[in-house]
Specification:
The chain is mainly alpha-helical and 37 residues long. It is 68% helix and 0% strand.
């Protein structure tokens, strides 16, 4: 139970970084890794 916040943060961080990376790629018109599909 003590590790649950760590893993929830890990998953949320993955989505946050993936979203920011896709936005960055759209702004600079660069090919980036697609996290969702």
């Amino acid at each position: 139970r003590k590790a649950l916040p760590f893993f929830v943060g890990l998953v949320m961080g993955e989505f946050t970084v993936g979203s920011l990376w896709c936005i960055y790629g759209a702004i600079v018109n660069a090919p980036v890794y697609h996290f969702w599909g």
